[in-house]
Fold each of these.
Amino acid sequence: MMIKNLTYNFQSNIIYMTKGSKMTIESRKKLSESRKGFKVSKETKGKMSESAKRNWQNKEYKQKMHVSQKKRFKENSVSIETRKKMSEAQKGKKQSEEQKRKRSERMKEKFKDKNNHPMYGKKHSLETRKKMSLALKGKFGEHARNWKGGISSIGKQIRNHPKYKIFRQKVYRRDNWICQECDIRGGDLELHHIKALSLIIKENNIKTAEDINNCEELWNVDNGLTLCNDCHCETDNYRYKAVLGYQKKFISI
């Protein structure tokens, strides 16, 4: 039986829409209202889940879905102006601790099996890495997209700075990834500052991202030393034990 764009199946008592037809906004609202409070049984959820898993194991189905989603995104892409409005509307909003906890639990459950992670066992191509690197160039400090007026501590900003990773790798490479105190290679290695980081920050009056970037003493490889976690904890200027004074317990190589 055909009524406008609908097909009615008498046996199953279900109304199907014909291909290419679209529901009006009014019809969508009515459908939404009629489904309110409706709950799917655990058995049905299980069947739906199994069906979806089978489908996604099919390469042809995956390809079709990929093309379909790409097309849908292109057709329904949000304008730059609308994106800006959405971004402004979300500014200053904070998630409650309950929302954070629920999101954390969902993600842990989702990625309990490593194979569920889209990047598990994969690596970005050299071309992609170059593009990512170029996109992030110069976007640190107040130029970073998540900048909130410098609320992070200076120490944290230094450790998150792009130069810090390069600095640490240079020290590890020079020391051949060997703890300079116990002579054990590899394991839980850490970068130790011979001259305390807090002292460098104080002496150079480091207060901004620009100061961090321009301070040569921060990135002096001779001030770095490779230590394992156990040996690092024993140093005189380890984290909370940092003292104002140059400790010469360790000598750089």
Amino acid sequence: MSEAARNRSPETRAKNSEAHRGKRHSPETRAKMSDVARGKPKSAEHRQHIAEAMRGKHPSAETRGKMSAAQQKRFADPVNHPLYGKCHTIETRAKISESRRGKCRGSDNHMYGKHHTAATKRKISEALQGKRRGANNSHWKGGPIPYNLLWPEQRIRARNRDNYTCQLCGITEEELGEQMSVHRIRPFRESADNSLSNLVCLCGNHSGNNCHIRCEHHPEVCPEPRKHWLLTEGLSGVSELQMS
């Protein structure tokens, strides 16, 4: 935006807006404008103006269809995507998480109190059919792997060692109303390690909090195993002194 345009008075902007109301640029003009703007980052002020202008507005079904078709054509080859092969840094993920905290829960969620119709559910199901299963899923890691036969006992030992308490938020099994999840700090698929030094107890979902999922997606916040010794006895006849 030029300096002259930036300094226009509210009255002048209102007149310009009224004069252009209902008018549309030709396809040729829109193409020229798109070519000129391509690759030029928008200023924070410009983005703020766009956000304010679009607040409360929703594109029509026809417009959404055009936008979707344009994106599919542009990113038909994943290599063309600007984030292809890249990952957000820990700092960026923290900023994204912080900016979204509390904004999409309860009445703040745009789907609060609403439900998809049977027809919409069927369309979503058909659109996703086979696309997110097995190797097509973004979280696919090669399929199920067998745990060793001692895993049930080792799980009990880990819960006993951690006093049946989540090592991240401090909630107990009694307060939670269910058993703690036993999380592997280094994934079993990579380490095949079920030793207590690789296990830590974390809670499941309660009051919108899920420490197990949080540590799965953000390994940097996962607590270390407890650093004291406990005597674990009576587990399938095994009695041993273990480090926790």
Amino acid sequence: MAADLTRIEISRNVDIVGTKLAVTLFVIDHSKARRATCVRLLQSQREMRVIGESQSAAETISFISKVKPNIVLLDLDLALESGQLLQILRRESPRTKVILLTGAVSQARILKSLSYGVLGCIKNRDLASFLTTAVRVVDAGEAWVPRSLVSKILEQINKRLQQ
């Protein structure tokens, strides 16, 4: 069965920006318009390179395990469609970081995804303003989450420490 891939390149970090390798990204979103927005914003940055995009996460896992992008931008709805998707991604490409693309969703859904190792979360309406910054922050090993979630994250950590 052929994957519904819009584009895929089997190469990794071949573009050199100064002395640093380019950040490679893969975009997975059911919305063609949102994928196009992400690709346009990212390709405007010299140090970022989109190596593929897809509308379906499940069909893309094997490609991600081969190309091992630095970061996957993943539609939250697709991430939670299969409770195991984030775990599979983590197993197949453990160094790949994930940033969720979200609409108007509950904090509980985002927190659940963060508990699977997701390092970033950006609302769809904020893509134009913050996507490239979020990619830089997550690539540097830091988290990018809405401020409104920070207290909830700390509460969950505190509960786990008390158990």
Amino acid sequence: MSKMSEVMPKWGPYSKKYSGVSRVTEHETEKGVRFDFISLPAVSNTDAKAPNVTIPVGVHPWDVKSDYSFYSYRQDLEWKDVIYSDVSFTKLSDESVLVRTEIFNNSELMQNCLVNYFSSLQFPFLTSGTKLFFFASTNILLVSSFSHIAKKSNSMPPSPSETRTRV
């Protein structure tokens, strides 16, 4: 067991490029292999920006527990909190993570929103003659929700369909 695994949890924000959840393996034949998983919320027919940590794309760290059992970020889909998403990662066990993506629509119009999930394996630099075998079992539970907050109009009383939250 390495010193790093004694301090850091198995799952965490370890990617060098994207906000998401990652796991670095420690098995002898898999040492240094990183599994990355990201959530990409978007409004249909717009420029969807991946939650890149190296360039500004409207992603902001939002909340974190000191043991990394929970952390989250907010991503602006439309500027000034008109449409945004909250993405959170919660440890369920050493082998399981809950990924929750919520999209909030504060605009006056209904929006067609979607959530894409991406995963990748990042391999370490291998010297010639090195063999690498990767066998892993991972559980990721996905939860997505969409919220529309209806705006009241001053000219007419709101209809019953405008006053309830649409999901």
